[in-house]
Write a structure and sequence with these properties.
The protein has 357 residues and is an alpha+beta fold. Among the domains are: 56-86 and 124-249, 2-Layer Sandwich (Nucleotidyltransferase, domain 5), CATH 3.30.420.10; 252-328, no CATH class. It contains six helices and 18 strands. The strands form four sheets. A seven-stranded mixed β-sheet has the order 9-8-5-6-7-10-18. A five-stranded antiparallel β-sheet has the order 16-15-14-13-17, with no helix packed on it. The chain has a four-stranded mixed β-sheet with strand order 2-1-4-3, with helices on both faces. The protein is globular and about 70 Å long. The two termini are 17 Å apart.
């Protein structure tokens, strides 16, 4: 793993190796900090040189997982496999069903609101959820690396013959990708490659891609992202760093006021919102028993704590007074260990790794 480096003004510089970063921290030349689950260092003095190499970020979009690889001609600095934002379409169906159910209840009527779904300037709900999530990760990479270009594999929607409305300007995929392209161009220059070009270059380099798209391995999605970035910066024909960092967005039910099904007596328990007993959900806290955990829901005045890496629930009965807030996380981060690391190339004790802290 390489360690991102920024100057005193938070401007990104070229990454460094963990041993040099530890030496900087020990002698007071740099200060360690965490950003988005990635360990970084900030220089406390003016850097000796500000010359940066061309650094490209390849983005391999997908329906369930997406790959991001940041590399230059010399090294591969970071590989990210991010969970795509899905489930919005089903949530919209549930929202519509519950809204129509409320209309049949004996409740005071209010003046109908304007139909917000008729505006053609707004993105569809699912597209509005997926696009900004990818843009957040792109901006995050620009904050820790001196990115010079983004390379994205283009996606194309199938045009149905005989369907007047179903064309390239109507498909949510086409609308979403054009919105993403226009937004990411405001960060750094953008290059687009077709899928068959990526495949041809991958086979030319002798890299293999696994068919298990949900596997947390470099060969699932980051292999194509690496090939995309390699097409611009060149360099080594194989990556020198295959460590994989998995990221997943927090999903909150902002407007779901209560559970769908009432309990005994016709009462519905509160469910939606982003605050639990005054603490924002997703906050990293320290608990005397469970250690570092993220805040989830609330029930009967207690908090639900979850594992920061896997989001597995640890307890539902944590007291607020026992939880010491550390920071609000932007997303869930997990460093995936390599399946098999030779003893000679195993990381030394004290190697700096990713952590949600």
């Amino acid at each position: 793993m390489f360690v991102p480096v920024v100057d005193q003004s938070q401007h990104p510089l070229m990454p460094t190796i963990p041993s040099r970063a530890r030496r900087w921290i020990k002698c007071g030349k740099a200060t360690a900090f965490w950003k988005g689950g990635i360990f970084c260092v900030r220089l406390n003095a003016e850097p000796s040189a500000r010359v940066v190499q061309p650094l490209a970020v390849g983005i391999d979009p997908g329906s369930k997982r997406e790959g991001y690889s940041a590399l230059s001609a010399a090294h591969t600095y970071l590989n990210i496999q991010a969970e795509a934002r899905d489930g919005v379409k089903d949530a919209e169906k549930d929202s519509t069903r519950m809204r129509r159910t409320r209309r049949n209840r004996k409740t005071p009527c209010r003046k109908p609101r304007q139909n917000r779904k008729q505006s053609k300037k707004k993105l569809p709900p699912s597209t509005r959820a997926r696009g900004p999530w990818k843009l957040r990760l792109a901006r995050f990479l620009c904050q820790i690396f001196p990115v010079s270009v983004f390379v994205v594999e283009d996606i194309a929607a199938t045009t149905k013959q005989g369907k007047r409305r179903w064309n390239r300007s109507f498909s949510p995929l086409e609308v979403g990708k054009h919105w993403f392209y226009e937004e990411i161009k405001q960060l750094v220059p953008l290059q687009i490659m077709q899928g068959y070009e990526t495949k041809a270059l991958r086979e030319q380099l002798g890299l293999k891609k696994t068919s298990k798209k949900l596997a947390e391995v470099w060969e699932a999605h980051c292999v194509d992202a690496w090939v995309l970035a390699y097409s611009v910066v060149g360099g080594k024909t194989a990556p020198d760093n295959k460590r994989l960092v998995c990221m997943a967005p927090f999903v909150w039910h902002h407007r779901q006021l209560h559970r769908f099904q009432p309990e005994q007596g016709g009462k519905r328990k509160p469910y939606g919102g982003t605050l639990s007993q005054g603490i924002k959900r997703g906050t990293l806290v320290i608990h005397p028993k469970w250690g570092k955990a993220t805040v989830g829901g609330t029930m009967d005045g207690t908090l639900s704590l979850h594992d920061p890496a896997t989001n597995r629930r640890l307890t539902q009965s944590a007291k607020v007074m026992d939880c010491k807030p550390l920071k609000v996380l932007r997303w869930r981060t997990k460093l995936v260990p390599l399946a098999s690391i030779p003893v000679s190339s195993a990381p030394k004790k004290g190697t700096l790794l990713s952590s949600p802290g």
